[in-house]
Amino acid sequence: MKKLPLFLLMLFTCSLFSQKKITDTIFSNKLNEERIIQISLPPSYAKNKSQKFPLLVLFDGDFLFDAYQGALSYGYYWDDLPEVIIVAINQGNSRENDCAVNAETGLPEEKGEKFFEFVGMELIPLIEKNFRVAPFRIVSGLDVTAGFLNLYLYKDQPIFKAYISFSPELPTDMEKNLPERFAAIQQPIFYYHCTADGDLKKMRTRIMAMDEEIKKIKNPSLNYLFEDFKEASHYSVVLHAIPSALYQIFSVYQPISMTEFQEKIVKLPSGYAQYLKDKYELLEKSLGLKLQIRLNDFKAIEAAILKNNALNEFDELAQLADKDYPKSMLADYHMALMYEKKGDYAKAQKTYLRAFQREEIGDLTKDMMYEKSEDMKRLAPKKGKKGEVIEETPVEEIPAETPPETPTEEKKSE
């Protein structure tokens, strides 16, 4: 299989624009023909040289590419969705042949078998060889391609970890076979599928029957969501479903929300810093993304610690800050805040001053650290030459108007 001639060009030009698509032609030895694919690299791909990104493979790239790219771009803007590498296969009039299955077994046959192998044995290895791809792959399609993508779940070790199936046209016995696979599968799997009341009745009946069977499964490895859209057509269901599917799969990526803070974090008896650490370890484990902890997430945990007066947890939070932002003042700020709230103003003053010497970050500035240091200095008890604490006795207040002197007994006798 030939290397894409535009790969190096894409790596160079990626820094010049936001996420855009590159269309190119590659030759498949499995299919013995050229295929058109579209590739989109994340906006930060050229800037973050060590970062790897999830891979989203789209069947029906002719019409699904732009729909997905729009939704993802919006999610990137709000940092609600991670940046991903999109690879879309244009299928045009070949989609039926690409997804050919045996009428009796429901398994790929003829060109369908070759296309199945093209995706897993040629396309994905080529992309992973040339781009920084995280070990988290997603696949998506509509109707016939949506049914076909489910066949990768029949493998003992599925090559995809997440499946987005829009109004699938299910191959033979899939409504029975797929639930059986979900019950047995051990690796974590995200699965989203949907239908609409505008779908063909024959398709809807089988899709909803499969949903009923999957809902009976008690497998903690399966993250499952099914939606039935009302007043939607077979084709409009895609625009309804893409956001739901992406937010289901990437829910662990999202920053700490007010709901998460109020319903999960602040109610904890302890372990607020550990919650933050676990959140990002889960993100790395499930999506293959190793990210810096967001500043707003640090602020959320800071608020939970203060609200619950769990001041000692600032020590652990400072360690996380020092790991992710070693040159910034964030870690020293957390330690200074702990000393301040404990009433150890002398240590707080020194630590705020130390923070002043580090790099600013977010809304933490040098001016703020200096002012806090001066505040702590005024509050700290003063020391004498030998280090003893000098108690400051309040100055006796002299009334502005002294009452007239009362005559003594001696003066009265005079």
Automatic annotation (TrEMBL):
Residues 1-20 form the signal peptide. GO terms for molecular function: hydrolase activity. Residues 390-399 have a biased composition (Acidic residues). The keyword Signal applies. InterPro entries: AB_hydrolase_fold, Esterase-like, Mycobacterial_A85_antigen, TPR-like_helical_dom_sf. Coiled coil: none annotated. Residues 375-414 are annotated as: Disordered. Keywords: Hydrolase, Signal. The keyword Kinase does not apply. This is Alpha/beta hydrolase-fold protein.
